[in-house]
Amino acid sequence: MISGQKSDSRLWLESWPNRLTPLVDVICIPGAGAGTFAYRSWQRKLPGYCAMHVCQLPGRENRIDEPVVDSLEDAVDQICSAYLEQKSDQRPLILFGHSMGGVMAFELARKLQGMDCGPVAIILSASTPPRPSANKAKLSDEALKQMLVAYDSGNSSVVKNDELFASLAPVLQGDFQLLRGHVVVEESKLTCAEVHLLSGESDPVVSNESVARWKQHFGCSVSQQEFSGGHQFPFQESESDVIGLLTDVVRRVVGSRVS
């Protein structure tokens, strides 16, 4: 369950204004510790007819005073409710999930597929399906700092600042525990018109081989591609290439609906 009272479901999915009449919904889900800011620059780089929605978990940015989530399943339920409240039957859905967000995107896709409104395409970036772990103990501060730097070398300034690290640690700890407590169950496989698995060639946390483990959970053709950069490659070294891939998917999806 989610600690404390459940928030308004609309807070879980921030929808950004469109430049043109929306023809497709794109839901982006950030990685551990991150919020909507990670995707802010993407909006102006994607086609103007994309209705872009970004997941915002409690404990960060505009929800910083809310208690963190302790169940990935409950978080997905909230995101699903938020999407259904504003869903247009005329618009197809594309999901993009990075790192922990990839696991959430997959579970959201499976939940929506069970409601006959699943996505037509899903992109999982620097993500791997969690495996059962007997060790559920929280990470020590030192282990958490090492993980932060591994995810992004730019976080070295964060771990050296005791006050800043202390303010971020609860959210990061909660997100990592969220993943460690979740298992992608072996049931009916997910099918989409397009599935793309992305990895960073110098990612020290999630290898290309571990990203490939998602293939066993899909019952359709899966494309896998490696990009230049580390764990944050979609927002740093290879941002333009990843946005280009997503744009190509968007255009194919919209084109198939128009033709």
Give an overview of the whole structure.
- This protein is an alpha/beta fold.
- The protein has a single domain (9-131, 186-251), classed as Rossmann fold.
- 34% of the residues lie in helices and 15% in strands.
- The chain contains seven helices and seven strands.
- It has helices at residues 72-86, 100-113, 141-151, 156-159, 162-180, 208-211, 239-258, and strands spanning 13-15, 24-29, 50-55, 93-98, 121-125, 194-200, 223-227.
- A seven-stranded mixed beta sheet has the order 1-3-2-4-5-6-7, with helices on both faces.
- Strand 4, helix 2 and strand 5 form a beta-alpha-beta unit.
- Helix 1 crosses helix 2 (100-113).
- The longest helix is centred in the C-terminal third of the chain and has 20 residues, at 239-258.
- Residues 1-7 have low confidence and may be disordered.
Oligomer: single chain
Strand order of the largest sheet: 1-3-2-4-5-6-7
What kind of sheet is the major sheet? 7 strands, mixed
Distance between the termini: 44 Å
Tell me, rounded to a whole number, the average pLDDT.
Answer: 88
What's the SSE pattern?
EEEHEHEHHHEHEH
Strand content bin? 5-15%
CATH class wording: Alpha Beta
The CATH architecture can be given as 3-Layer(aba) Sandwich
User: Residue ranges: pLDDT <50 for 5 or more in a row?
Assistant: 1-7
Give me the count of strands: 7
Question: Can you describe this structure in just a few lines?
Answer:
The chain is of the alpha/beta class and 259 residues long.
How is this fold's topology laid out?
Elements: E1 13-15, E2 24-29, E3 50-55, H1 72-86, E4 93-98, H2 100-113, E5 121-125, H3 141-151, H4 156-159, H5 162-180, E6 194-200, H6 208-211, E7 223-227, H7 239-258
Parallel strand pairs: 2-3, 2-4, 4-5, 5-6, 6-7
Antiparallel strand pairs: 1-3
